[in-house]
Amino acid sequence: STYDWNNGTISTDIEGFVNNFTAGHNDTSIYCTSYKYSGHVSLNITLQSDNSTDNQTETEVIFHIRGPKAQDAIIGQGSSITCSIAAPEEDHTFEMYVNGQSFSKLSPDSPWYSAGFNKSTYDWNNGTISTDIEGFVNNFTAGHNDTSIYCTSYKYSGHVSLNITLQSDNSTDNQTEWTPIFNSTSNEVGPFTSSSLPVFKLKFTENKVADKYLYQGVNVNLYNGNGTRLGHTNFIIYARIEDEEVLLTGYKRFYFNGPWSGNRSCSEYLNLDYLEDFNFEMITSVGSEDMFQFTTSSGESHSESMGDCSSYSTWQDMLLEAESADLGIITWVSDLPDYFTTEYTVMQF
Questions:
Q1: Which distant-in-sequence residues (6+ apart) come within 8 Å of 36 by Cβ?
Q2: Which residue of 78, 130, 140, 199 has the fewest C-beta atoms within 10 A of its own C-beta?
């Protein structure tokens, strides 16, 4: 389908909804590309067995929220803002609040008025009806910064929320200060609040092509005000040689620690075929569904979402207690810098 946002942007969307995953859906590759515009996105779907359920998860109703990716959360850039609820019935009570104001009552003086938020429903003909509230900002301004988006249902119990924090438009790569890091932990970043979470950016620079098995772990650790670790992200990158080609695979994960350690973690195996070598930049944005984002040396962007994890809402709740963070780079390959080096910067907090 297509939708004209009446602000110079037209979105073309391909959507589907699976009511109940089966073994036949497992290990599926989804690849979307444009032959008119240069670029593509992809993901690999790996399912857990049906005995690994979360007893506290209500599978009938699913809430979803999406804001700008880290590379788009910049004044002068643009992004869609979407809230959805998938349920057995249409939800006329589903509502979005922008800084406490209903989306349908935004004043023409509000910077969000031009986003053209629209409420719609879609029947997937499989027992699920989605109710969606969507808008698109063509160019973020300072007035969009530090915005709270809160979506709730008065028919079904639940809500989702996000805080939009933008970078100034002068934060270009030419002005970025990079700090080398290898098999160590960065300085602690903070204090911060859940509305100003840090975004860690890691730059990989290849020195020579891999000729053996390589391993690199990237963690972001989150702490409360007492210095107790509450949770951490974990992205693992493997390089292996197959038929004289270098193949990159990995895992995307988050874990709960300390007082949150009784909650369920999330892990998924990935085929990182969009990374052709070790020349790329990686973003870990702990407050975004698209928690792990990559920009290749050719400028292509890819993201790995954690928003579909059954415990993602618990992760969001944990972030409310986080006040500081650090970046950990882990490997057991002692000569890894011979193959590539890593440098990091903190984009915002």
A1: none
A2: 78
